Amino acid sequence: MPAAQSAAPPHQRQVLSPKVASWLQVAPMAVIFTLMVLIPLAIIFVVSFLDYDFAQVFPELYLGSWVDLFTSQLTLNLYALTFKFVAIVWVVTFVLGFCIAYFLSFHVRSGALRLLLMAAIAIPFWTSGPIRMVSWVPLLGREGLINQALMGLHLTSEPVTWLMYSEFAVLVAYINLLTMPMVAAMANSMAKIPHSVIQAAKDAGASEGQIIRDIIFPLIKPGIAIGSIFVVTAVMGDVFIVKQMSGSQVNTVGMSIVTELNAFMYPPAAAKSIVLLVIVLSIVGLLLRFADIRKELQK
Amino acid sequence: MKLALLKTPDTDLKVSPVPKDTAPATPKLKQATQSHRFDAEIVSVTKRYAPLGAPAVDNISLRIPRNSYCCLLGPSGCGKSTTLRMLAGHEDVSEGAILIHDREITTLPPVERGTSMMFQDYALFPHLTALDNVAFSLKVRGVAQIERRAKAREYLELVQMDHLAERLPNQMSGGQQQRVALARSLITRPKVLLLDEPLSALDPFLRIRMRAELKRIQKELGISFIHVTHSQDEALALADLIVVMNDAVIMQAAPAREVFETPTNAFVAKFLGGHNVIQSKGREVSVRADQCHLGARPGMNSLSGKISMIEYQGTNVRITVTTAENEDMTVLMPALTYFDHAPEIGETAQMSWEASDEHALAPM
Amino acid sequence: MSKPNPRRARPLSFYFLAAILSAFLLFLYAPMACVYILSFQGPTGGMSFPMQGWSTHWFQVLFSGDGQGVGDIGNAFRRSIRLAFVVAILTMAISLSAGMAYRRKFRGSNFVFYSAITSMVLPGIFVGFGIALMFNLLGWRTNWFTSGIGAQLTWTLPFGLLIMFIVLGRFNPSYEEAATDLGASARQRFTQVIVPIILPGIIGIAMAGLTSSYEETARTSLNIGTGNTMPMEVTGLLTAASTPVLFAIGTITTLFSFTLVIVSLIVMSRLAKRRQMRTAA
Amino acid sequence: MTDATTTPSYKYKSASAKTGLSRRALLKTGAAAAAASALPAPMLWAQNIKDITITHIGQSYSTIPQIAEKANEDLDFEVVMQTAPDTTTHVNRLLTQPDTVDVTDMPNTNMKYFLGRGVLMPVPVSAYKYWDQTLSLFVDGTYPDGTAASLEGYAPIKSQYWKDESAQEFSLTPTDYLVGVPMYYNADTLGIRPDLIGRPIDSWGELLNPEFAGKVALQDGVSTGIADAAMALEALGEVTYVDKGNMTKAEIDATIEKLIEYKKAGQFRSFWSNFDQSVQLMASGEVELQSMWSPAVTEVRTRGIECTYQGMKEGYRGWYIMMSAMNHLEGLKRDCAIEYMNWVNAGWAGAFISRQGFYNSVPDNAKEFMTADEYGYWYEGKAAQGDILNPFGKVMEKAGATRDGGALWDRMGNIGIWNTLMDEDRYLVRQWQDFLSA
Question: Model pTM?
Answer without folding.
Answer: 0.81
